[in-house]
Amino acid sequence: MDDTLPASIDDTLALLRRGDYVADRPLATTLFLSLELERPLFLEGEAGVGKTEIAKVLSETLGRRLIRLQCYEGLDVASAVYEWNYQRQMLEIRLAEAAGEANRETLSRDIFDERFLIRRPLLQALEPHEGGPPVLLIDELDRTDEPFEAFLLEVLSDYQITIPEIGTIRAEQPPIVVITSNRTREIHDALKRRCFYHWLDYPTAERELEIVRVRVPGIEERLSRRIVAFVQALRERDLFKLPGVAETLDWARALSTLDVLEITPEIVNDTLGTLLKYQDDIARIRGSEAARILEEINLKLAQEQV
Fold first, then answer.
1. Kindly report the CA angle at 303 between 297 and 306, in degrees rounded to 5?
2. pTM for the full model?
């Protein structure tokens, strides 16, 4: 682990590669600029293309703590920023009353002390950390409501949070912020303007093959080529949910575990659940369509070898 930030785009590519992340140069460029200029990195793309993994790799390779805020509908300040430990506060009040300390002003000041504060991910990310500012992953922001998005805009503008009972807490150094979205809804332009943006698409066949080699070491080359070719062909079909890189890797590990040397229609039918997550999609591919795809890729790969 090296807590030194990369000094160039090539260093950024190398940093990601040390974490077994195979990135293209446009992504490495956006990430380098985000780190160098201390701006949040906003990643959009389909589920399973590797958005979340970037934050994990940065945490691992830089030796920084990873703080993850998993977004969902109805996410509020109490879950994302802070809340007071009401049970401990009530206990403190009862103990003070039992001891005859009834001064309300003093008691109010005492129970809103930081020792009763429960720090949630956003507040944790602003505090000093050994080893340098943490990596703050705000995952699937598109799942939240717009009011929370507006609050987040205020936090990311100045990297500070105001707690009425305590005051303003400001980060000495801004955290490394990675925001992801599956684009189930549009994120407001005001937030995007404060970030460096990158659309993470499905990889080319060549890059996906390299990802399989790196993430599933020991897999037979011929098998990995056919795995990638089959997944790439699936993405050309009219499916409800196209398989991402995560599904490609799951399928590769599954076939490797089963000691598969050759992909047959029967193997595809038996293992489609690792690639596709909706029954309608599985029914559309299983059987004759799977056999047709295998014929296509076998012919294509044979022509490439000529």
1. 145
2. 0.89
